[in-house]
Each structure stands twice: as C-alpha cells, then as structure tokens.
Specification:
The protein contains eleven helices and 16 strands. By secondary structure, it is an alpha+beta fold. β11 and β12 (255-262) form a beta hairpin.
Length: 345
C-alpha cells in the first residue's frame, strides 16, 4: 500500500475518515480497519507515481454482498476519463491494488464516431476513476462471476459528496436507489436528552460498557440483526481506544440492544425496542464531552428520531445506491442509528 500518511491526508474529508478519524489506515503500527480480512483497498496515483488521486475501500459482507465505504476521487480527475496501468506490489496486491494514470481526457469518452455495436458493447479503455475503483474493489471482494445475477454492491453518498452522484449512478452501475431513508444529523446534546429521556425511563434493562465478559452476548445479539458475520469487525471497533460500546441487558445472555460511540458521534444503535434505543442514546449523550452529537438516523423506524429533523443543527440526507437490489439481510426495524461510513448497517 502507498505511504499511509499521504493516503490519510488524501481521505481525511471522506465519510469514513469523519466517522473514524484515526484507525482507518495502519499508522504508527496501530491496528487498522483495512487490515481486517474482508476489507480491500484500491489506490490510483498520478503520473508521478506518488500522488494519490483516487482511493477506495470495500468490505465484503458475504460472498454476494459488499459495501463501498470510501470512493474518493480528487477534484482534478473527478470528471475525467483515464487510462491506468496496474502497479504490482507482491502479495499485498491481492488485497490492496495500486494503479497509475498514464493518460487522461476531460469528460466522458466521445462515442459519436464509433460504429453502433462498439459504442454500446465495447469495453472503454478510458474510464472514470470511480469505475476503476469499483471494478478493482469488486474483483478483490465478491468477484465478478455472475455479478449481474447474484451479487450486489452498496454505496452511500452524503451531502456535498453528491456532486458526483450521477457518475456513481450512471457510469459506475449503482442504479438502484434504496427505499430506506437515512440522514446524518448533528443535534444539541440537551435536545437529545430531552427527546429520549422519558421513553428511556421506561426501559427496565441495565446499561453497562461492552467488555470481554459480555462481548460474546453482544455478538450473539448482532446475529439477530443481520445474517452477516461481523465478529472480526466488531472486535476491532471495541478494541479501538476511540470507541466505547454500551450494552443493554437483563442479565447474562439476555441482551436487549447495544450501541457504539466515539467522542462527538454515535456510531450505531441496535435494539429490540424504542425504549431500549432511547436509554442507550441518553446514556451516550450523558457521557459525551461534546455539546453537539452527530449520527446517522434510520428514518421511519423511531418516531422520536424522525422528529429530530426539525430540531437538529445540521441535517444531511443520505443517498444509498445499489448495483442490483436493496439489502434484505438486515432487520432494519432493529437499527435506530446506522453505522454508515463503516458498515452497511
């Protein structure tokens, strides 16, 4: 992989880096997200062979589903068609591919002078960098065999990133819009407490921090939310010193829900009920050192959460796109706050 400080600087404004400011890439010999077995990366450097101009991270959920966490392209090439060559990097290349630009042209390839058959069916030598990233990452994760019939890739586009939404949709193949509605909200901590305190007081479960003694119970509960095996991913997050986990339970082996938080952000809340979700949210807000808290709300599941849109300091809608179909292997009614930017739910 390219020198980590250079890449870290390049992706610092990406969605994933905002959600997890450090720990995405392996810096200073610290564990990183991309070192987990089912995470792969693709990097494109400029003609100088050093300057990153595009970077992507994709996680393999299972053999037929992957989630594109980062798909960042430098403004310089965001709407250019380019030819790239692959830079061989030994064994690491199977998980972290690197390409170099050898030619670039502004805009899409002009097909007006091509014969009709070639204009429609021929593979373009020049592609948008978003296509280069997606093609490489798909090959490294779920593979391309039966891609159109069985496999699905998901990507989230948030706020200002939407300026290139048409390229991801029309050029890269993310043609299916999700029916779920998500929004990134920044809300005053006191507003959160006022909104959820009453409902949270109805919850009879006990909230404690996630540790090695109850981690097994948390993983068991996660399996009731999704069919995906996320044990390595969740163990990494809980082991990250930036992140605190909270579990609501009625005793050993009886988990009602859990949540993950980091500084001024709630990363995820998964629960059986609105009361449990409310109690976990107020617990996090009460322990947060920040005056404002940011999270990705799963709209339409929790009426209290939906009502926060009018009270939030900032609201950014999320456009979730798929290559083939919406995701049905997640029980969305259990997802109050989604782990967007790091995980598919």
């Amino acid at each position: 992989m390219l020198a980590q400080p250079i890449l870290s600087s390049f992706i610092e404004n990406s969605l994933t880096a905002k959600v997890l400011p450090s720990g995405v890439l392996p810096l200073n010999n610290n564990p990183s997200l991309v070192e987990i077995a089912n995470f792969s990366t693709a990097t494109v450097v400029d003609r100088d062979g050093q300057t990153p101009v595009a970077f992507g991270i994709m996680s393999k959920c299972n053999s037929k589903q992957a989630y594109c966490m980062v798909g960042k392209v430098a403004d310089k090439y965001s709407r250019h068609s380019v030819i790239v060559e692959k830079c061989e990097e030994g064994e690491d290349d199977k998980k972290n591919a690197i390409f170099k630009i050898v030619d670039a042209t502004a805009g899409p390839v002009d097909k007006s002078l091509m014969r009709p058959y070639h204009a429609v069916f021929a593979e373009d030598e020049k592609k948008f960098l978003q296509v280069t990233l997606a093609d490489s990452l798909i090959e490294q994760t779920v593979g391309t065999f039966n891609m159109d019939m069985e496999k699905n890739i998901t990507i989230d586009v948030v706020g200002a990133e939407g300026s290139n939404l048409d390229i991801w949709r029309d050029r890269t193949g993310f043609v299916v819009t999700d029916s779920n509605r998500f929004a990134q909200m920044t809300v005053d901590k006191n507003v959160l407490l006022d909104t959820f305190a009453n409902e949270g007081s109805k919850c009879t479960s006990t909230v404690s921090t996630i540790n090695k003694d109850n981690m097994g119970d948390v993983l068991d509960f996660d399996e009731t939310v999704t069919m995906y095996n996320r044990s390595s991913y969740l163990n990494y997050l809980i082991g990250n010193e930036q992140i605190t986990g909270f579990v609501a339970s009625y005793g050993a082996g009886s988990v009602a829900g859990y949540a993950l938080a980091s500084k001024d952000r709630i990363l995820a809340v998964y629960t059986e009920s609105t009361e449990t979700a409310s109690k976990l949210i107020t617990t996090i807000a009460s322990n947060s050192p920040s005056d404002e808290i940011t999270f990705f709300a799963n709209l339409g599941v929790n009426t209290l959460m939906d009502g926060l849109q009018e009270k939030a300091v900032v609201v950014e809608l999320v456009t979730r796109l798929h290559t083939r179909t919406r995701n049905v292997q997640v029980k969305w009614n259990k997802v109050a706050i989604a782990n967007i930017g790091l995980s598919i739910f």
